[in-house]
Amino acid sequence: MNLTISTATWKYDKDWVYSITYDEALSELHRFVIPVHLELGIPGHLEAVAGHIGKVRALGESSYNGLHHMGPAEMREMIAIGWGVGCHSWSHGMVMDDPDLELRRAKEVLGEATGVPVTLFTAPGSNANLMPPVLEKIVEYGYLAGLGITDDLNYSDADDLVWTNRVPIHESYGGYFESAFEPYKRIRQAQERRGWIVDYCHCPLEEAVHECKDVTAAHHRERLETIAREGGAACWYANPDDVIDYRYMRRHTRVEPDGLGVFILRLESLPQEVKSRDLTFLLQTPATVSVTQALVDGSPVPTIPSRAGVQSFTLPVHDGMKITVKQGMPK
């Protein structure tokens, strides 16, 4: 009887994924943004400027000057409820002017402040800070991904796992063509193509601080409520760190058959910076056969029906792990 095992496109065999990021990691997020996240059960992600942790913002002619960068205690509180923190450089300037400071030192200081390794870099200013020389440096310094400022989806099987697209959720996103706020932006595409939306904004308040950089608090709520309503149980609402880890795990895990119903997992060249080693596995059996039990290194694990003829289970993976599937009698 034929049985196959594979890794799911996304964790928990969800159909698509949603994440949202907040550049500058401002304390004012507590006013409107964080309460909506807590209400809807959607995690967020803070992009912190490492050289300005805990300070009043005073960077050039920034529209956000006078607001407050979160300090270590605030960021640790957010991590404790499932949020993540990424590095938004040291100074919010040009990264290649001093990559050792802007990338390496910033990563180190932010890790000390938050108490967790930082593996995501978010380009400050524009995509000029995520060009090939920068991409080479962030990999050298132990980042797994760099977030740009684009308007596209991401996919589990993308050729390039470092470059990560973000969807601007702003009142009016400028450029060659003006673009008004759209609460359904990219949702249908993500559902159809099993993609990952990463939204990009700053700090939604009663009025947008800058219409081409942010949304109002009302539109922010509308966007997240729309995501939750359209996503339902089919969407993985995720901290971007976890999604990035999952994509690397899927890319670097090989499943080797080792006899009838037995499979060995091999982790090949997996970056050591990957923190979450979870993968979701799919067991595909003929319609006439049932799976009675799955064992991992000899211990039983529960499986759940995903769709007709497919059962799934999610667990941390290590090199050499053995999965044994016991098949039932024909139906």
Description:
This protein folds into two domains: 4-8 and 252-330, no CATH class; 15-244, Alpha-Beta Barrel (TIM Barrel). 24% of the residues lie in helices and 27% in strands. It is built from seven helices and 18 strands. The chain has helices at residues 29-40, 72-80, 99-114, 132-140, 187-193, 217-231, 240-252; strands at residues 4-7, 16-23, 45-48, 84-87, 120-122, 145-147, 163-164, 167-168, 196-201, 235-237, 253-257, 262-267, 278-284, 289-296, 299-301, 304-307, 310-316, 322-330. α1 runs parallel beside α6. The model has no long low-confidence stretch (mean pLDDT 94).
Please render the helix and strand layout as text.
Elements: E1 4-7, E2 16-23, H1 29-40, E3 45-48, H2 72-80, E4 84-87, H3 99-114, E5 120-122, H4 132-140, E6 145-147, E7 163-164, E8 167-168, H5 187-193, E9 196-201, H6 217-231, E10 235-237, H7 240-252, E11 253-257, E12 262-267, E13 278-284, E14 289-296, E15 299-301, E16 304-307, E17 310-316, E18 322-330
Briefly summarize what is shown.
The chain has helices spanning 29-40, 72-80, 99-114, 132-140, 187-193, 217-231, 240-252; strands at 4-7, 16-23, 45-48, 84-87, 120-122, 145-147, 163-164, 167-168, 196-201, 235-237, 253-257, 262-267, 278-284, 289-296, 299-301, 304-307, 310-316, 322-330.
Q: Tell me the count of domains.
A: 2
Classification by helices and strands: alpha/beta
- In the CATH hierarchy, what is the superfamily of the largest domain? Glycoside hydrolase/deacetylase
Task: Give the C-level CATH assignment of the largest domain.
Answer: Alpha Beta
Report the average pLDDT across residues: 94
* Tertiary shape: globular
The percentage of residues in β strands lies in 25-35%
Count the beta strands: 18
Question: How far is the first residue's CA from the last residue's CA?
Answer: 12 Å
CATH architecture identity of the largest domain: Alpha-Beta Barrel
Largest beta-sheet details: 6 strands, parallel
Portion in helices: 10-25%
Question: What value does the Rg take, in angstroms?
Answer: 21 Å
Along the chain, the helix and strand elements come as EEHEHEHEHEEEHEHEHEEEEEEEE
| Tally of contiguous helical segments | 7
Find the CATH topology of the largest domain.
TIM Barrel
Q: Uncertain segments of ≥5 residues (pLDDT<50)?
A: none
